[in-house]
Amino acid sequence: MARLRPARTCRTPNSQSWSRYSLKKPRKNFVRAMPHKSILVFNMGKNKEYDMKMQLCTKDDIQIRSNSLESARQTANKYLESKLPENYIFKVLVYPHNVIREHKMATGAGADRISQGMSLSFGKPVSVAARMRKNQPLFMVMTNSKNNVVVREAFRRAASKLSGHYSVKVF
After folding, report:
1. Per-residue pLDDT reduced to its tens digit, 92-142
2. Prediction pTM value
3. Which of 59, 80, 133, 156 is deepest in the core (most CB within 10 A)?
């Protein structure tokens, strides 16, 4: 079974973005088959009136895969649900549009003789990622101001699942 490459191989947004996928004009697609998105839920919690809003923001330009976003979302939401049951609104503010391509090559003993692949080849779509700019918010939590410490801990746990550096902004 093929494994995912490490996040360091695709976390810098230094290449051209590939996201064109059209249902109406499939012949004009740059991407023939769109990889599935791991993250499906973007809004969690109970809608009430809250007096504080906190955001987890990036400190630099980065590209985050959808499976990392889903892992961080589950971690933060599980912690918030255990500490603040139905006393928060949690939103994921980014959507993974960018298609990550990979040129799969054989590895292991003797692989150099069987895989003489083209260098800098286009590759096949493997996963999708969200491209983020510096200081762009990733997650947002609305709750009461007395729950400040709980939300900061949830963001700390979520940031440990993501590559890059993050900061918390309070509104």
Report:
1. 999 998 888 877 766 666 666 555 666 666 778 888 999 999 999 999 999
2. 0.83
3. 80
**Residue 68 in contact with residue 164, Cβ under 8 Å?**
no
Q: Is 24 exposed, middle or buried (0-12, 13-18, 19+ CB in 10 A)?
A: exposed
The C-alpha atoms of residue 2 and residue 7 are separated, in whole angstroms, by 15
Sketch out the chain's domains with CATH numbers: 45-103+118-171 (3.90.1170.10)
Q: Which among 98, 111, 87 is positioned nearest to 16, based on CA atoms?
A: 98
Residues composing the chain:
171
Taking the C-alpha atoms of residue 87 and residue 42, their distance in angstroms, rounded to an integer, is: 17
pLDDT digits (tens, 9 = 90+) for 17-52: 776 677 777 777 767 777 888 888 999 998 999 999
What strand order describes the sheet that includes 98-102?
A: 62-65, 124-132, 98-102
